[in-house]
Design goal:
about 425 residues; mainly beta; Porin; 22-stranded mixed β-sheet; three-stranded mixed β-sheet; 25 strands
Length: about 425
């Protein structure tokens, strides 16, 4: 989300969000556990068991690279529109929709209410469609669309329309070869998402939930019962001029400064133990061009990152570090100048109990030449009120320090965000 060119430090008590990134869904617990089952799960999550690797009875590993973004559920018979084909193949058309309603409560005297100035009314409405055809050989041919709509204002100053696609691609999937996608799709550099509504420093820097026009080959390789490797190889030929970054963060927010010819590689091995705990270690690299029709020359930008995620029972902890080299914006929103080096850090911990997930995380952006540091702290909770209605309550605190240009330092956000996400 974007907050009038500012950035955010979030402290959030967070709700139950589990993940599968390829589908862009957030899956929440749908009921409350009894006290006895809560105690049993908590004890199991910290118990010691045999270290032998026999994971066939364990749930699928939680792989950080598959973290979903939005909650998706379906009402009864609307889950699929399916037609049976004479040759035994199927066609189905899952779809869902809903809206995010956001209420901002400033603790430092800034305007609040239903959204913020420049981003009033419903944060956005959304509709997903996922047609898929399964061939007789078991291969799948399909597509994915996420359509968004705002009632007033645009989602960002550099997004031209109030109705726009966030993702729109087709794919071919083969169990042995993996999935090939083409269209408007997510860049998979780094951890996918941390489950919050408001966002984090890498998101506002344009490094997360950023879809562009290109192709992607994605595959999960099962090495054995306890080791699986997710791999992503992507090429983007042009930006789509739409992401969640602040104006002044990356090239997409500047007219005449355009991202092109970007390559991304990401590998995520995930180890699963017989006690159900998982460790996922991700490595990412990205290199791309920026075509400049303004005062700055053309630029080559490259990035690398490492991340680790540990889950056991109700607990999940993660940490990520990334570095980017090259000028991404002539007037950066944190430093105020054409900074040519960026270091990002994101870390957090989640605890889920029944229909509630509690979260606390910290993220930052460190810019060089000129210098400045953005710090964001988040603590909050997400509560599943019903299977189709979720409540987010997030405390946000954000500030900029260490800026070498005048007028850049100080607090931007100290607020409580109240968010309702309903979905069918």
């Amino acid at each position: 989300m974007r907050i009038n060119g500012s950035i955010a430090v979030l402290i959030v008590a967070v709700v139950c969000v589990t993940s599968n990134a390829a589908t862009n869904d957030i899956n929440f617990a749908t009921g409350y556990d009894s006290a006895a089952s809560d105690i049993a799960v908590d004890l199991a999550s910290f118990g010691t068991q045999d270290d032998s690797c026999s994971c066939s009875c364990c749930p699928d590993p939680w792989v950080v690279s598959r973290e979903p973004i939005f909650c998706q559920s379906h009402l009864g018979g609307l889950k699929n529109l399916a037609t049976s084909i004479d040759n035994g193949c199927n066609f189905k058309m899952p779809f869902t929709g809903g809206a995010w309603h956001w209420f901002h409560q400033s603790l430092i005297g800034n305007p609040g209410g239903y959204g913020i100035p420049g981003l009033r009314d419903t944060y956005f409405w959304y509709l997903y469609a996922d047609p898929e055809y399964t061939t007789a050989a078991g291969n799948k041919i399909g597509g994915h669309m996420e359509l968004r709509l705002r009632e007033t204002d645009t989602f960002r100053t550099f997004v031209d329309d109030q109705v726009w696609t966030w993702e729109l691609y087709g794919y071919v999937q083969n169990d042995e070869l993996g999935t090939f996608k083409a269209g408007q799709l997510y860049n998979r550099f780094g951890l996918f998402w941390d489950g919050v509504f408001f966002g984090n420093a890498p998101y506002f820097d344009g490094l997360k939930l950023d879809a562009d026009y290109g192709v992607s080959w994605e595959k999960t390789t099962e090495i054995n019962d306890c080791l699986a490797v997710d791999s992503y190889f992507q090429y983007f030929f042009h930006e789509d001029q739409s992401n969640g970054s602040f104006g002044g963060a990356d090239a997409e927010s500047v007219v005449g400064y355009t991202e092109k010819n970007t390559g991304v590689v990401r590998l995520v091995p995930t180890w699963t133990r017989s006690d159900g705990s998982q460790v996922a270690v991700g490595a990412s690299a990205m290199v791309g061009q920026i075509d400049s029709k303004i005062a700055l020359p053309d630029e080559t930008v490259w990035s690398y990152g490492m991340d680790v995620t540990y889950t056991k029972g109700r607990w999940k902890a993660f940490a990520e570090g990334m570095q980017t080299f090259g000028v991404r914006n002539p007037v950066n929103y944190v430093s105020g100048g054409a900074s040519d080096e960026l270091t990002n850090f994101l870390a957090g911990i989640h605890y889920t109990r029944g229909a509630v997930t509690y979260r606390c995380s910290y993220s930052n952006s460190i810019y060089k030449n000129p210098d400045a540091v953005q710090n964001m702290v988040l603590a909050g909770t997400t509560i599943t009120l019903t299977p189709d209605v979720d409540l987010y309550i997030e405390y946000v605190n954000e500030r900029v320090d260490g800026a070498t240009l005048p007028g850049r330092n100080g607090a931007f956000f100290n607020s409580i965000e109240w968010v309702i996400n309903w979905h069918f």
